[in-house]
Amino acid sequence: MIRPRWLLLLPVQWVLLVALGALVTGPWAAGRPSSLEDGVNRALAAHRTEVGDAVAQALSTIAGTQGVIAVTFVCMVALLVLPRRPRWGEALFLGGAVAAQSAVFVLVTVCVNRSRPDVVHLEQAPPTSSFPSGHVGAALALYGGLAVLAVAGLRGPWRLPAVVALLLIPATVAFSRLYAGMHHPTDVIGGLLNGACTLFVMTRAVPPAVGFTGRPPGRRFRADAAAGPGGRRVVVVRHPHACPDELAGKVRAVLSRHGYTDQQWTSTTAEHPSGELAALAAVPETALVVVCGGDGTVRACAGTLIDTGTAMAIVPCGTGNLLARNLHLPTDAATALEQALAGAPAGIDVGRVHGDGLPATCFTVMAGAGLDAAMVRDASDRLKARLGWSAYALSGIGHLTDPRMRLTIRLDGGPELRRRARMVLIGNVGALQGGLPLLPRARPDSGFLELVLLNPRGPAGWAAAAGYLGARMLPRRRAERRSPGTTIGPLVAHGALEYFQARRIDIAFATPQARELDGDVVADGTRLTAQVQPAALRIHLPATGRALEPADARTPGDRAVTSGG
User: Fold this and answer.
1) How far apart are CA 519 and CA 374, in angstroms?
2) Which residues lie closer than 8 Å to 21 by C-beta, 6 or more apart?
3) What is the DSSP secondary-structure string of 421-472?
4) How many C-beta atoms lie closer than 10 Å to residue 107's C-beta?
5) What are the CA-CA distances from residue 227 to residues 230, 232, 255, 280, 322 (Å)?
6) Does the N-terminal peptide bond of residue 437 adopt cis geometry, omega within 30 degrees of 0?
7) What CA–CA distance (Å, rounded) separates 191 from 137?
8) Rounded CA separation 57/173 (Å)
9) Of 440, 437, 565, 432, which Cα lies nearest the Cα of 501?
10) DSSP assignment, residue 473?
11) What pLDDT is recorded for position 472?
12) Stated pTM of the model
């Protein structure tokens, strides 16, 4: 969570640095401190070497404006993309620290005008005041911020070496600025103070250990109050690779605490993606079906449970877990089951889909064709095992230049609409991995399906699409919902994205295209027909009251909590 009142210390920090700058340019300028500083600069300039010059120039590049921005951007993206749960709080802490330090630095240089040391400079001096050192302040804000994150997030023998190595970077940058003749010693001290004070403020304004993961936890279940006499019957469908033995043991324990002592387990196979669920769930005493796997396993089980009234609980342990993400289930698989069982079942929509070479089936998340399906199809199994859903992103890079598809769309039996697109996605829910709200108004209980066409043209089109979607991940007011009904448009991001809404969507492609359902590749084809089946599947949801909100009505904090592994 953010504590904005701590940011009020930044103006105080600016005043203190301006006061220090007034001292070094005023009373101290003609006294002993100034002469001592000049002596340090002259001594270092007199002992320069080629190796030292090269190291100083390299450090100047690392701590310069472009270098700091580039490293900060990469680190923030890594914090959002690489972990199983996007680290929104840590990313905001790091980016905020660098930005706040830079803002204070600029404002100080407006008020303090100090010339550079009177020695030969190893690089061209920027037009800003020598006090305080911007390179040093930025280096401490960035690499000191990473050290703070390392202290909070790393465990084991690597934590101390990592912290020491990160803190050595701003220290060496500070020395290199003196060596290069770019700053007086008090300028470097001012830069260190600026960076250190900024980190102090940001660790309290956006505590990295809390970040945006501070959703109030679901209430604890009291087994003695809920367990019925003799126990209840549950069928557990387990994907053997996604749900290891340790997790299976936790699932057994959680179910027992909730009174489900009659547990019937079945494992999935390639030939039977829902195991023996159909036979086991047909027993009238079955009160619950628990699915331990990813979106593909959930989809296979949903096909058996639709319109039966038997509720499902999800243990998200697959690669994408998009349905779990969109339903606000916690990151930890066992905790997701605990909180879901502490809540109550709710009905969600299901998409019915068929096409040429695609027998009638269902999806709970999305059905896609084009770039999305090719990305899923070509993702390396080895990379998926090591990187999780990031492997899909790497696969997608190779398809960014694929030719656009020619297609026609018919919404709820209306007139044909002719379009071109690189990707077609029909969604029951709206958010992708990392909380990206590709279908921002999709709700799993709306009674409608959302359709998006991705059709960027050239680098500018891709940039417009990325900017539009990235902006929707920022904190914002609750989304204004469209009135339910068949809708065409709008075109956004300079035409790179186009949105539709309907109960039935018929799509015909000019040539066979790759297709996928909930992350599972199906046969290529030229037709795709999807129709919503409202409230057809009952799923246990946490007692938070927000699981069925549209994607862009949620804050980044909501998305961080819901992302699964």
Assistant:
1) 11
2) 108, 111, 112, 114, 129, 131, 132, 190
3) ESEEEEESS-B-GGG-BSSTT--TTSS-EEEEEE---HHHHHHHHHHHHHHT
4) 17
5) 8, 8, 10, 22, 31
6) no
7) 4
8) 10
9) 440
10) T
11) 74
12) 0.56
Q: For residue 88, report the phi and psi dihedrals to the nearest 5 degrees.
A: -60, -45
Full DSSP string of 18-86: HHHHHHHHTTTTTSHHHHHHHHHHHHHHHT--HHHHHHHHHHHHHHSHHHHHHHHHHHHHHHHHSSSS-
Q: Assign 3-state DSSP to the chain and report helix, strand, coil percentages, each to 5.
A: 45, 20, 35
560: Cβ contacts below 8 Å, ≥ 6 apart: 85, 86, 87, 88, 89, 211, 212, 213, 435
First-to-final CA distance of the chain: 23
Q: With CA atoms as reference, report the closest residue to 515 among 415, 414, 426.
A: 426
As a whole number of angstroms, the distance between CA 18 and CA 293 comes to 58
Look-up of token digits 């297609």: 407
Q: What is the identity of the amino acid at 230?
A: G
Tell me the C-alpha distance between 396 and 497, whole Å.
17
Rounded CA separation 505/413 (Å): 8
Pairing mode, if any, of strands 449-454 and 497-502? antiparallel
Residue ranges in 235-370 assigned as alpha helix (H): 245-257, 277-281, 295-305, 322-326, 333-342
Mean pLDDT, consecutive 10-residue stretches, the chain (565 aa), reads: 83 95 86 83 93 93 93 93 78 94 95 92 84 95 93 75 94 95 94 96 76 32 34 92 94 94 93 92 91 94 92 90 90 92 92 94 94 81 66 71 91 94 93 81 92 90 83 56 58 88 96 92 94 94 66 42 31
- Alpha carbon of residue 170 to chain centroid: 28
Contact 380, 546 (CB under 8 A): no
- For tokens 């029951």, the residue is 428
* Cα 260 to Cα 287: distance, rounded to the nearest angstrom: 9
Who's near 309: CB < 8 A, 6+ residues apart? 538
DSSP state, residue 140: I
Cα 280 from Cα 234, distance rounded (Å): 9
CB-CB contact of 215 with 79 (8 Å): no
